[in-house]
Amino acid sequence: MYDVMVIGCGPAGLSAAVNVRQRGGSVICVGTAKENNPLWKAERIDNYLGMPSVTGSQMMEAFIEHARSMGVELKKERVLNAFYTGDHWMMSAGADVLEAYAVVFAGGISRGKTWPGEEEYVGRGVSYCATCDGMLYRGKDVAVIGYGSADKEEAEYLEQIGCRTVYREKPKTVRIIGEKKVSAVEVDSETIPCECVFILRPSLAASSLFPGIELNGSYLKTDEDMATNLPGLYAAGDCTGRPLQVARAVGQGLVAGQKAMEWASNAKK
Ligand SMILES: Cc1cc2nc3c(=O)[nH]c(=O)nc-3n(C[C@H](O)[C@H](O)[C@H](O)COP(=O)(O)OP(=O)(O)OC[C@H]3O[C@@H](n4cnc5c(N)ncnc54)[C@H](O)[C@@H]3O)c2cc1C
User: Fold this and answer.
1) Checking CA distances to 14, which of 4, 129, 140, 193 falls within 20 to 30 Å?
2) What is the DSSP string of 44-58?
């Protein structure tokens, strides 16, 4: 039985796990391969304090190393289901069943159905974050595929910083075209030449993992302690809303880790 189990080994999950260890708790962090993490694919990160001009993979390696050095147990697996027994959580991760007093969900955002060419060109002209990658495309043609009104604002932001922006909302079909990098995107049979396609999906799958969890729009609803409406379940990072950024994920991970540990300590009394 762990004090805390963390789902997702991205910045939020690792930060939560480190902060459980900092409080003397036992913690396991379960996540899919680091190479599948969105941050791993980032060409360059310039807005995380103290770590300028690092690649996403360098940043992830540093986070993972830090967590390991603090005694965080890491497990490469997908969490398939979870339920609360009345005094603790049980989860299946691959073939294993894990138990913990409290859980931090830090699963990022579910990208939903991917479009042809999308996975192939992530980091080479496909981006999920205008604030993160917009500056790389100043003075260049970009396309924004949006799914809600907030996405139009991101397209406007790109225009403001000097990207020549075409915005299309809720298309039925999208196909990314390129050779080594993106050169165009086909949206509902209209071909838009561009160097980057920003795909801004707000979709989320945590609701299927945790039936009854409350949402705030498409994101998980939490209070200021990062607690969800379910007992002993906390959430942190991109799964709780925008901006989808590392610094926010790490900060929320700290709060969620500390509060989950507090819950576990009370549950053990
Ligand atoms: C190309 C690119 C460039 C970016 N550039 C920047 C930048 O410059 N600056 C910046 O601040 N941010 C940037 N970001 C955003 C940054 O990567 C995210 O904000 C950050 O990774 C969010 O951290 P997180 O821990 O909340 O979620 P994630 O990093 O998404 O981690 C969640 C992890 O949980 C795993 N997971 C989900 N469900 C399960 C499950 N059931 N079982 C097991 N594992 C699960 C996922 O596979 C994923 O690995 C960029 C992102 C991309 C894609």
Assistant:
1) 129
2) -B--STT-TTB-HHH
Mutation pick for ligand 1 pocket among 132, 176, 197, 255 (CB with most ligand atoms within 8 Å): 132
Instruction: Using most ligand atoms within 8 A of CB, pick from 246, 250, 254, 255 the residue to mutate for ligand 1.
Output: 246
If phi over 0 gives left and psi between -120 and 50 gives alpha, with beta otherwise, what is residue 6? beta
pTM of the model: 0.79
Ligand 1 binding pocket, CB closer than 6 Å: 7-8, 10-13, 30-32, 36-39, 41-42, 45, 47-48, 78-79, 106-108, 123, 127-129, 132-133, 209, 237-238, 244-247, 249
β-partners of residue 127 are 198
A 10 A CB-CB count for 41 gives 19
CB contact at 8 A, 4 and 25: yes
| Structural domains in the chain plus CATH codes | 2-110+203-268 (3.50.50.60), 119-200 (3.50.50.60)
Reading the chain (269 residues) residue by residue, the pLDDT tens digits are 999 999 999 999 999 999 999 999 999 999 887 887 889 989 999 999 999 999 999 999 999 999 999 999 999 887 878 999 999 999 988 778 999 999 999 999 876 678 999 989 988 999 877 877 899 999 999 999 987 666 788 899 999 999 999 999 989 999 999 999 999 999 999 999 999 999 886 544 687 789 999 999 889 999 999 999 999 999 999 999 999 999 999 999 999 999 999 999 999 98
Task: Answer for the pair 20, 3: CB distance below 8 angstroms, yes or no.
Answer: yes
Distance 261 CA to ligand 1 centre (A): 23
Residues contacting residue 222 through CB under 8 Å, at least 6 positions apart: 228, 234, 235, 240
